[in-house]
Design a protein that fits this description.
The chain is mainly beta. Helix content is 7%, strand content 45%. The strands form seven sheets. A five-stranded mixed β-sheet has the order 9-12-13-10-14. It is globular, with a radius of gyration of 18 Å.
């Protein structure tokens, strides 16, 4: 697992553990939260049960064909890493009920591939479990959609969230309730592939072949990169950068 250093424009190794990371987040104490795929050794048994027999999500498929294919020989795991001592601090996060965890922030898959075409209807069913970070305030939702998610979106009660319907290629705005229930889904933009970012100033960035810039819900401009962009994140000490992952490179666009 690597971290991008904008000052030196290099990737810094955090840990050499054998992960296949899917998406990343941070807790309130600066730990890196890593959603990763885990491939059990064939016929391995834990507590008397073969690992690949265990159903992580009680028959939920994530609304499409991807997770059933994924779960044939893999499982989802979420771990926490302290960047100051990555190898020594590595720990798997437990799955607990949302009612018990009561997190301040819940991370949700930024994009979903639901080839059953039911993403707008899927929000009617509330999520009930999460992976709780060591800070006790941050969690990642427990859902098969993590298997394909390229990024994570923080859900904050009382504020809207923006998610990518990857199958229908659009941005969906949802309202976040006090219990993290999602409601009132509407199509916010008829663009979308893997990621979405809205800055503190309200400008939105949508990667979809080009990098589309939206202001007040309307397309304002486009940026063409050397590679196809995938995920975007506003970051930096003063939120001065937009980081962009692409097919072969990582880009940093200065916002201010």
């Amino acid at each position: 697992i690597y971290r991008w250093d904008p000052e030196t424009e290099t990737m810094i190794l955090l840990t050499s553990q054998h992960f296949q990371p899917l998406s990343l987040a941070c807790d309130s104490q600066g730990r890196l939260l890593v959603v990763t795929e885990y491939q059990p050794v064939k016929n391995s048994v834990v507590n008397g049960i073969e690992e690949l027999v265990t159903d992580e999500f009680g028959g939920e498929s994530g609304g499409g064909c991807y997770y059933p294919f994924f779960s044939y020989d893999r499982r989802i795991r979420v771990c926490a890493i302290d960047p100051k001592a990555p190898e020594a601090s590595l720990e798997l996060l437990p799955v607990v009920s949302l009612e018990q965890a009561k997190p301040d922030i819940l991370y949700y898959p930024a994009n979903q591939w639901r080839d059953s075409g039911d993403m707008m209807e899927s929000f009617a069913k509330n999520d009930i479990a999460c992976y709780l970070a060591p800070d006790g305030k941050t969690a990642i939702v427990h859902t098969p959609a993590l298997a394909r998610a390229c990024g994570l979106t923080p859900l904050c009660p009382g504020k809207p969230a923006y998610l990518v319907d990857e199958y229908n290629k659009c941005i969906v705005q949802v309202q976040v309730g006090n219990d993290f229930a999602l409601s009132n889904p509407t199509v916010w933009a008829e663009r979308g592939e893997y990621g979405f970012a809205m800055t503190e100033d309200g400008d939105a960035y949508i990667p979809d072949c080009l990098l589309y810039i939206y202001v007040d819900g309307e397309k304002k401009d486009t940026i063409q990169l050397h590679d196809r962009p995938a995920c975007v994140l506003e970051a930096g000490k003063n939120k001065e950068y937009l980081y962009i992952t692409a097919r072969r490179d990582v880009y940093a666009l200065r916002l201010k």
